[in-house]
Amino acid sequence: MQHTTTSQTIGPYWHLLEDSSWQDLTRFGADGEVIHVTGHVLDGSGTPLADACVEIWQSSPPASQSFTGFGRSATDATGTFHFTTIKPQPVPGPGNASQAPHLALTIMARGLLFHLSTRLYFADDPANADDPILSLIESPERRATLLARQTAPGTWSLDIHLQGDAETVFLEI
After folding, report:
1. The dihedral formed by the CA atoms of 124, 129, 132 and 136, expressed in degrees to the nearest 10
2. Residue extents of the structural domains in the chain
């Protein structure tokens, strides 16, 4: 007899959401260009999700004692998430092609049996034109769902739409 384990939307680590220090990837004294990343998680009708979790991971700069490269943020009552991190640089990608600076995002929320994966790229970065992952998305409108806009000096914003007309492009990992 075979038994399967049910999926959990966030696993046993929900308590990490209560510690807002996980939103600050620079908290151990990381060096580099400090940026703030924010946005909203929205359902198909555009309603903010107040109980979602967004994780970021970045390979640039490399993880070290002063930079974890990983962060986790709960959304607030308006569906907003926040991170403080170091702006990434290009990194090698598939076929050793250069990938544009980006953050990997994981979204967990009620109603999702499995997490969703996507990326956040920085709008107007010239390296976006040759990024091997962005290049797979033929539609400019769909590609734009991965492009964070600078809303103030050092602050970048990207809204994540789980479904609907403005649905964010999600990646199969």
Report:
1. 100
2. 11-161
> Which residue did the predictor score with more confidence, 98 or 20?
98
Q: Which CATH class is domain 11-161?
A: mainly beta
Q: Can you give the pLDDT at residue 4?
A: 53
pTM: 0.89
Q: Which of 107, 12, 103 is nearest to 61 (CA)?
A: 103
Sign of CA dihedral 104, 42, 149, 21: negative
In angstroms, the Cα distances linking 40 to 29, 48, 55, 64 are 27, 7, 13, 29
Rounded distance, CA 136 to CA 117, Å? Answer: 16
Residue 148 has pLDDT above 80, yes or no: yes
- Calpha distance 33→85 (Å, rounded): 8
